[in-house]
């Protein structure tokens, strides 16, 4: 069972306070988008073995959403960050680059 | 015979006699005994029968690794099967019964299996019970069921209670032996918060038995002093009778505390499951001695050498008068010395090693007059229900008997294996230690935690450091390393405790005794006592191609019993490796999974049982419903009245009467469970237009509108009435199940997609008790109570108003889910019951009768109103339910809009909502499928529709239903066939889903 | 209008190790808004005489409390009868600002858990580090109690005030009772 740090309320707590909501940074496609774009948006997920960016909610806590960068194999947590962003923070990406060279080629 | 000695026994208090019963026989022991030591003190060598062959079995070990001695403990509400006698502390009045025999322990019919053992080899079950197939159900399964399992399952409710405890620390030390205490001491000096768990009732582990000095004093002196020091530290928590059961991700550890097992009359919970979050875990879990594989090594009286020593030193119990020691290492000699010291006879030490130069212990043994036979082995053990002697052979040969030694006990030692379980649970890897012939933790491949760093270390014998000085140094180093991982530091003056050291000759691995044992001997050389796996079985598995250790394990069942192979795994692996001609490390180990030792299921459940098994949500009127005949229906965690039975009514009649009465007079429904979400802000209208398929921004203040919600996949997820409260505030009703999920859904879109929109949402579901006042007399009742104007003119259909009724401040919504004149009235929850009672009182003369969820369903179904969860199942879109009118064409976008254009969604062949009416008035089975012509690719009849809701309509006195049917709306009048699971095929006609008051006149009065 | 009734009518459970009492009805207003903004801060001060608390803290003054719920939400706790007036003042002060204030007094149940083992009773049910060195008076924690969401703080040492949803009041009262059963002291929190 993971421990998770919520960037919104500053709590570090066990997973039972939280809920995972799958892959992060997915672009919403809608009216005007092609069928392929819709398929990608609705169904296509990376499911990598390794570095993964996820959406989480502090469900039994402050109730807020946030993002988490995590290794799906080792369960190492690289960091958590605001849900109000389209991309992971640069310094976090740099940290992941240092810890998992070449991860971008895989995931 | 095994007996209590006149002297000795460091853990027992001979001034306090304890009475207990084994298989009905009265026995006595002493305070401080385990059930094992007490049984042995009463010469109870035979304690159980083995699982497969029902062989007589005795106690082999003195700790949790015991494979044989499992008993049923207690009775009725305190009954516990498969209790290990070695870990069961004796208490006055204890009752134990042996397992797995019939009719008695002494005479067991199942033991016939042992004569069939050559016909019951590895994989027997897989081979035997495959064919012929029909025999499985009526012959094989009942036989296997009868003979499978060890203890009996309890039949009575467990009368004890259990609990969890959340604990947090920097350093968790598992194991309270000298290594654990030293690691804890060192770690605690830094100020770190330390918890130390010890599975037994005693600190110090094996060292007080094994001897040695620490810091120049007897080990026990150091143990006492260190304990006192730890107990005095604010930052240290010490727990005995608490086992570290499992290590999980991110420093999560389960500790299993047995609070009353040793004292069942003590008040309080029986077990407490510690849910510990540790910054770092140090496992100081010691080591377990390995048996030797020789013929007859399972006969009662053959015991691990260290266990024999434990019983003498700790409990003053001798296993036998004449004990032959058989070993491949120096440590077992100390058992011989302990026996000699207690005045017992050791006719010989059979040492399988070929060592020319005597080591210290060998010299000492010879000095004590013990016959030390180097290079010798046991050919076979003599005896049935207890040992009568051993035949001696050369270890190097095939077992030719050189002589026979009469004895009544055998103390065996095949070397020691570190307890690596907790290290391995979360991914710690092992390396093969050639010197000690065991798997040890590989410090370079530790378990890794949340930050990617090491979070488990080992200390002492668990690291493979078997000498006292090594163990203490290792423990100190483990604490030092742990603190570094945590960014903490040992104080500069901290020093490791100094342990003494023994000069020992190296051990020599012995995986089979004698080395070239014949098939006949191998068939009697047990590896796994509990599951009756022999050397010959593992060899057969290898021969049949089970080369993977995980496959061989499952094929032979080696290590699969409740002891999880604590004694058998390494010997089994070595046997497999030998058979495969591989090195042991190449064969590898099986996976270590928690728990280390079985824990009670109830401790996992903790407090969650009986009334608090799960949360039950109650409305403010719950107790009134309960007192007035409510039959409960679980709706999520809520309990809602299904119907209120009056007088002698059946439930079915109660439902019918509630429906009829509501249509004719007046009904009352507790609608408090419906979700109520306030959505407010300058962008609230825009936001709701995105969430609902229809337009909400244009709703006038004071008005209500029914709305549909889809997810972005286009599927219906919720529906409900939305009320516009003021310029920037809306109140959204959700379904009962949707209150939390739709609130979360709204927050999700606001926080993760449209975070710049100015909208706030508040879930006020439970602030209000909401009561639906329904039926032709509804207005009369409200007017009688007095207050706000509820006339058609003042409060029209689909309008709402704030006001007061009968002195209750309320908000009244004129909405209807029944097709009748209906007011849904929200009052503060704290006066909900009072308001309900006021309505009941005023309605007495107006034919008022409350109704439950089943009447609610029938009332809506008669009107053709859909229900989320009945007509929808996560794959249904509004178009399927002919709800096109609720799909805004004016809005550019809303959740699901684009998805509805996807090819499958826009497919004209989707099943569509229709009404269904059986030709004979019967009620269609809910969920039944309509069958068409032809067959699908799987040879099944083609399905052309299914029933989504089906009821008996009291209003129409016939069965009515709704369903989704292929081209349904175009097939009005057509009769479809619905085969039921009851063998009856129902015929139903496709009709308009609105069965009652098609014009909607009744609700709009 | 009838008198308001709390969910469990002030039910009490007394054991050696802790006492559990449902208190209430208690006034509660949820306020969502930009906590750093002047209007929101001024509204809290005007309506309740309270400053916005630090992250995860509960601040009490003159019988009224204000708890930090999330980055854009506080909970004002006051006498039940004061809610309407306070809500009126809040809404007045917040006119023209984007904020949401709602009465949630009746949506909740409130318990006091007190006694020498109060910390242990709570630590059996909530996955929170309640060591005296880690959780102190003035801190406010939203978490779960057994299987339901809850929030609590310590108005004083040896006493927790617990808030949960009204519908699960009985459940929370019952699990607290199991956790406080006689003989179940853990004996770990030392001061």
Describe the fold and architecture.
In chain A, 21% of the residues lie in helices and 29% in strands. Chain A is α+β, with helices and mostly antiparallel strands and 107 residues long. Chain A has a 4-stranded antiparallel β-sheet, with helices on one face. In chain A, a hairpin with a 6-residue loop joins strand 1 and strand 2. The longest helix of chain A is centred in the last third of the chain and has 10 residues. Helix content of chain B is 22%, strand content 28%. The longest helix of chain B has 18 residues. Chain B has 25 helices and 51 strands. In chain B, strands 9, 10, 13, 14, 15, 16 and 30 form a 7-stranded mixed β-sheet that branches. Chain B is of the alpha+beta class and 1005 residues long. By secondary structure, chain C is of the alpha+beta class. The interface between A and C is medium-sized, with 14 and 12 residues.
Summarize this structure as a short list of keywords or feature phrases.
heterotrimer, A: 107 residues, alpha+beta, four-stranded antiparallel sheet, two-stranded antiparallel ribbon, 3 helices, B: alpha+beta, seven-stranded mixed sheet, 25 helices, 51 strands, elongated
Low-confidence runs of at least 5 consecutive residues of chain B? none
Terminal CA distance of chain B reads 96 Å
Largest beta-sheet details of chain B: 7 strands, mixed
Summarize model confidence as the mean pLDDT of chain B. Answer: 94
How widely separated are the two ends of chain A?
24 Å
Q: Can you tell me the CATH topology of chain A?
A: Folate-binding fold
In which order are the strands of the major sheet of chain A placed? 3-4-5-6
Task: Report on the biggest sheet of chain A.
Answer: 4 strands, antiparallel
Work out the helicity level of chain A.
10-25%
* CATH superfamily placement of chain A: Folate-binding superfamily
Structural class of chain B, by secondary structure, is alpha+beta
The total tally of domains of chain A equals 1
Strand segment count of chain A: 6
Report Rg of chain A: 15 Å
Taking all Cα atoms into account, the compactness measure Rg of chain B is 38 Å
The quaternary state of the protein chains shown equals heterotrimer
Characterize the overall form of chain B. elongated
Q: Tell me which protein chains meet in the greatest interface and how many residues each side has.
A: B-C, 54 and 56 residues
Helices of chain B, by number, come to: 25
Weakly predicted, low-confidence segments of chain A: none
* Element-level helix/strand string of chain A: EEEHEEEHH
């Amino acid at each position: 069972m993971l421990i998770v740090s919520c960037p919104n309320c500053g709590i570090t707590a066990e997973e039972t306070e939280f809920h995972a909501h799958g892959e992060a940074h997915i672009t919403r496609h809608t009216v005007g988008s092609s069928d392929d774009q819709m398929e990608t948006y609705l169904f296509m997920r990376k499911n990598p073995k390794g570095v993964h960016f996820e959406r989480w909610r502090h469900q039994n806590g402050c109730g807020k959403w946030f993002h988490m960068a995590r290794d799906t194999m080792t369960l190492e947590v690289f960091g958590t960050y605001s849900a109000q962003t389209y991309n992971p923070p640069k310094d976090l990406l740099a940290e992941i680059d240092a810890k998992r060279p070449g991860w971008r080629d895989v995931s | 015979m095994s007996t209590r000695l006149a002297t000795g026994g460091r853990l027992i208090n001979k001034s306090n006699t304890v009475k207990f019963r084994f298989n009905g026989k009265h026995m006595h022991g002493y305070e401080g005994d385990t059930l094992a030591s007490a049984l042995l003190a009463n010469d109870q060598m035979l304690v159980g029968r083995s699982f497969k062959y029902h062989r007589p079995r005795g106690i082999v070990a003195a700790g949790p690794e015991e494979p044989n001695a499992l008993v049923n403990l207690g009775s009725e509400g305190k009954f516990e099967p498969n209790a290990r006698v070695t870990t069961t502390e004796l208490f006055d009045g204890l009752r134990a019964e042996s397992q797995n025999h019939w009719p008695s322990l002494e005479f067991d019919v199942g033991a016939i299996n042992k004569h069939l053992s050559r016909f019951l080899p590895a994989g027997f079950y897989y081979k035997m019970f495959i064919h012929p197939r029909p025999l499985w159900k009526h012959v094989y399964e009942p036989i296997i069921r009868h003979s499978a399992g060890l203890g009996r399952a309890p039949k009575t409710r467990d009368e004890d209670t259990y609990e969890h405890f959340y604990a947090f620390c920097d350093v968790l030390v598992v194991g309270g032996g000298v290594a654990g205490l030293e690691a804890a001491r060192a770690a605690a000096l830094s100020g770190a918060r330390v918890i130390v768990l010890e599975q037994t009732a005693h600190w110090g582990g094996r060292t007080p038995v094994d001897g040695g000095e620490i810091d120049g004093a007897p080990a026990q002196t150091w143990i006492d002093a260190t304990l006192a020091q730890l107990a005095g530290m604010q930052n240290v928590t010490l727990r005995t009778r608490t086992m570290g059961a499992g290590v999980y991700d991110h420093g999560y550890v389960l500790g299993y505390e047995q609070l009353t097992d040793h004292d069942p009359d003590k008040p309080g919970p029986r077990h407490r499951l510690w849910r510990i979050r540790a910054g770092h875990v140090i496992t100081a879990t010691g080591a377990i001695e390995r048996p030797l594989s020789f013929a007859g090594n399972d006969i009662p009286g053959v015991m691990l050498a260290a266990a024999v020593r434990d019983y003498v030193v700790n409990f003053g119990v001798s296993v036998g008068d004449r004990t032959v020691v058989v070993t491949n290492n120096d440590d077992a000699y100390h058992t011989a010395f302990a026996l000699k010291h207690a005045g017992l006879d050791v006719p010989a030490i059979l040492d399988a090693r070929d060592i020319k130069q005597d080591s210290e212990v060998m010299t000492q043994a010879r000095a004590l007059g013990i016959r030390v036979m180097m290079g010798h082995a046991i050919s076979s053990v003599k005896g049935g229900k207890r040992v009568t002697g051993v035949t001696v052979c050369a270890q190097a040969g095939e077992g030719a008997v050189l002589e026979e030694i009469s004895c009544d006990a055998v103390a065996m030692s095949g070397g020691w294996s570190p307890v690596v379980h907790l290290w391995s649970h979360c991914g710690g890897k092992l390396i093969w230690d050639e010197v000690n012939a065991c798997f040890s933790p590989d410090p370079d491949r530790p378990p890794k935690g949340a930050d990617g760093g090491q979070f488990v270390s080992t200390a002492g014998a668990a690291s493979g450091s078997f000498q006292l000085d090594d163990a203490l140094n290792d423990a100190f180093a483990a604490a030092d390393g742990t603190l570094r991982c945590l960014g903490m530091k040992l104080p500069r003056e901290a020093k490791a405790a100094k342990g003494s050291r023994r000069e020992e000759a190296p051990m020599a691995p012995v995986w089979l005794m004698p080395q070239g044992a014949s098939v006949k001997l191998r068939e009697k050389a047990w590896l796994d006592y509990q599951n009756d796996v022999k050397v010959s079985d593992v060899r057969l598995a290898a021969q049949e191609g089970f080369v993977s250790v995980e496959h061989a394990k499952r094929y032979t069942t080696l290590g699969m019993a409740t002891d999880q192979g604590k004694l058998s795994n390494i010997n089994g692996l070595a046997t497999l490796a030998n058979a495969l001609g591989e090195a042991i490390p190449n064969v590898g180990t099986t996976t270590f999974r928690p728990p280390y030792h079985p824990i009670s299921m109830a401790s996992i459940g903790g407090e969650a049982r009986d009334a608090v098994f799960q949360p039950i949500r109650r409305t403010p009127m719950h107790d009134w419903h309960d007192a007035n005949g409510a039959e409960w229906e679980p709706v999520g965690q809520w309990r809602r009245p299904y119907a209120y039975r009056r007088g002698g009514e059946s439930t079915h009649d109660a439902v019918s009467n509630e429906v009829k009465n509501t249509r004719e007079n007046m009904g009352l429904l507790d609608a408090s469970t419906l979700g109520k979400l306030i959505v407010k802000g300058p962008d609230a209208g825009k936001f709701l237009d995105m969430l609902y398929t229809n337009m909400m921004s244009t709703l006038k203040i004071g008005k209500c509108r029914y709305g549909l919600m889809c997810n972005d996949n286009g599927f219906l997820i919720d529906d409900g009435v939305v009320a516009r409260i003021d310029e920037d505030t809306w109140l959204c009703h959700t379904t009962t199940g949707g209150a939390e999920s739709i609130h979360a859904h709204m927050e999700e879109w606001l926080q993760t997609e449209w975070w710049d929109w100015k909208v706030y949402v508040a879930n006020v579901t439970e602030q209000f008790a909401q009561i639906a006042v329904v039926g032709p007399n509804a207005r009369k009742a409200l007017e009688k109570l007095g207050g706000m104007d509820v006339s058609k003119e003042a409060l029209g259909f689909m309008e709402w108003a704030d006001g007061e009724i009968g002195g209750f401040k309320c908000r009244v919504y004129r909405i209807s889910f029944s097709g009748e004149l209906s007011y849904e009235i929200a009052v503060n929850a704290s006066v909900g019951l009072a308001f309900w009672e006021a309505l009941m009182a005023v309605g007495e003369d107006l034919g008022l009768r409350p109704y439950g969820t089943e009447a609610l369903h029938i009332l809506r179904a008669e009107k053709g109103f859909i229900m989320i969860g009945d007509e929808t199942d996560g794959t249904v879109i509004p178009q399927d339910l002919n709800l096109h009118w609720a799909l805004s064409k004016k809005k550019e976008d809303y959740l699901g809009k684009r998805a509805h254009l996807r090819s499958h969604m826009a497919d004209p062949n989707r099943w569509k909502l229709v009404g269904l009416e059986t030709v004979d008035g019967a009620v269609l089975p809910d969920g039944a499928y309509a069958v068409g012509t032809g067959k699908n690719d799987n040879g099944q009849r083609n399905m052309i529709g299914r029933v989504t809701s089906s009821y008996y309509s009291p209003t129409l006195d016939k069965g009515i239903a709704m369903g989704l049917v292929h081209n349904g709306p175009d097939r009005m009048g057509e009769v479809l066939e619905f085969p039921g699971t009851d063998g009856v095929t129902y015929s139903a006609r496709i009709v308009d889903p609105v069965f009652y008051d098609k014009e909607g006149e009744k609700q709009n009065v | 209008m009838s008198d308001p009734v709390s969910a469990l009518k002030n039910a009490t459970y007394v054991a050696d190790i802790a006492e559990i009492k449902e208190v209430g009805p208690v006034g509660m207003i949820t306020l969502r808004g930009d906590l750093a903004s002047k209007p929101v801060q001024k509204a809290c001060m005007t309506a309740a005489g309270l400053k916005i608390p630090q992250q995860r803290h509960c601040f009490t003054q003159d019988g009224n409390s204000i708890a930090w719920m999330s980055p854009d939400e506080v909970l004002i706790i006051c006498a039940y009868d004061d809610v309407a007036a306070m809500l009126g003042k809040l809404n007045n002060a917040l006119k023209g600002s984007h904020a949401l204030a709602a009465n949630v007094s009746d949506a909740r149940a409130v318990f006091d858990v007190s006694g020498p083992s109060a910390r242990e009773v709570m630590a059996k049910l909530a996955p929170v580090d309640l060591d005296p060195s880690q959780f102190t008076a003035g801190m406010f924690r939203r978490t779960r109690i057994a299987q339901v969401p809850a929030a609590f703080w310590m108005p004083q040492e040896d006493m927790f005030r617990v808030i949960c949803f009204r519908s699960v009041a009985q459940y929370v009262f019952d699990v607290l009772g199991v956790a406080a059963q006689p003989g179940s002291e853990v004996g770990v929190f030392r001061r």
